[in-house]
What does this fold into?
Amino acid sequence: MAGVLLVEDDAEDVEITERTFRKGRIRNPLHVVRSGEATLQFLRHTGCYADVNEAPRPALVVLDLHLAGLDGCEVLRQIKGDPRLRRIPVVVPTTSSEEADVARCYDGGLIRTSPSRWSVTGSLRQCSPWGSTGFWWPRSPRTPDAAQA
It folds into this structure.
């Protein structure tokens, strides 16, 4: 079964997500990395994540926007700019009300941001099973421009 890659540098947010997985009986494995650099190593199987068995391709990336070092917007830009990674869905739960932050994410290839009270189970419910491999794919990705069309 395909897993979820959580990119989060706040230990409390990691614990909340892990608890949500347990309470929601989400069976998809949860892998956690705590920096933008580690995210790209995990996805590209480099550095300490060179072993594909230890860093399997996730079905979904949950990406914190405000990371120290390589920030979430730059990580998103690199994921969506890499032909091997660009089809992995990315969710960015954010409390940011800064239009510039959101615009940078959309410019980087984001399909949708989630509100501050982001829900793992809610995001997975917005997805539909794709084949029998356990992969998840967004049902109706919408950007602000598409919503206005």
